[in-house]
Design goal:
By secondary structure, this protein is an alpha+beta fold. It has helices spanning 9-47, 202-206, 208-232; strands spanning 48-52, 67-72, 84-88, 102-110, 114-118, 121-125, 133-134, 151-155, 161-164, 196-200. It is built from 3 helices and 10 strands. It has a 6-stranded antiparallel sheet. It has a 4-stranded antiparallel sheet with strand order 7-6-5-8, with no helix packed on it. The longest helix has 39 residues, at 9-47.
Length: 233
């Protein structure tokens, strides 16, 4: 007489509980995965955004039309000098001509720093130090010889930031209006750290070509969708 051992009390006591535990572990595992994914996605949406470059002020580093992933910041004082930052200027009357109300520039100096440019070379006396330092700027593009690049010494005030475009020939930035008329949007002070809404992480800049492929595919799919909808209509 053949008997299914799974019907025995011994099997049920030993293996039945294990099956229940396995099912419970499986459910818990997927709940954790879902929670981590959901929170991760929520953090991604909350902490990151996209920006499209408009203009040539950051050439040769960035080109007009480039799509970049940016990370939002709450305290720009924590950013390192040299970071590519996104500055909101939409609330300033002098910046009504700025497309979208945002600037994308490079952070050069922060509160307490003294900064100047001589013979197309930027120097900084960092806050708390006593010696001027030459800033290594492999990203800077100066174009044709001109006197527009140099500016007098300026001490970055409380809560202020000093930024420049990588294309020093064509960029309206923190070069003070008293030094170079028309180069600074504001007429009585510099922009403030609170105006900075985000920055471009180094890894996002390195992977910018990958993001461009994503946007190309997205644009292609949008065109296909528009054509299909158009044919349906």
């Amino acid at each position: 007489m053949n008997k299914d051992l799974r019907e025995s009390s011994l099997y049920k006591n030993k293996w039945g509980e294990n099956e229940q535990l396995s099912l419970l572990r499986f459910i818990i595992m997927w709940l954790l995965v879902f929670a981590l994914f959901f929170n991760g996605a929520r953090l991604l949406v909350a902490d990151y955004g996209w920006v499209t470059v408009d203009g040539s002020s950051m050439c040769q580093t960035l080109q007009s039309g480039d799509n970049l992933l940016t990370k939002r910041v709450e305290n720009a004082d924590d950013l390192e000098r040299g970071a590519i930052i996104v500055v909101y200027v939409g609330e300033y009357e002098e910046c009504r001509d700025v497309q979208g109300g945002y600037l994308i520039k490079r952070l050069i100096a922060k509160e307490g720093d003294r900064v100047k440019c001589e013979n197309e070379q930027v120097y900084i006396l960092y806050a708390g130090e006593e010696e001027w330092r030459r800033v290594d700027e492999p990203y800077a593009y100066y174009g044709n010889p001109s006197d527009v690049y140099d500016f007098k010494e300026y001490t970055v005030g409380e809560g202020e930031i000093f930024f420049l475009g990588d294309n020093r020939e064509y960029s309206r930035d923190s070069r003070y209006y008293e030094w170079k008329e028309g180069k600074c949007h504001l007429k009585d002070r510099l922009y403030r750290s609170e105006d900075v809404v985000g920055y471009v992480p180094d890894w996002a800049l390195e992977k910018s070509t990958l993001f461009e492929k994503f946007f190309s595919i997205q644009d292609f799919l949008n065109k296909v969708r528009e054509r299909i909808i158009g044919n349906v209509k």
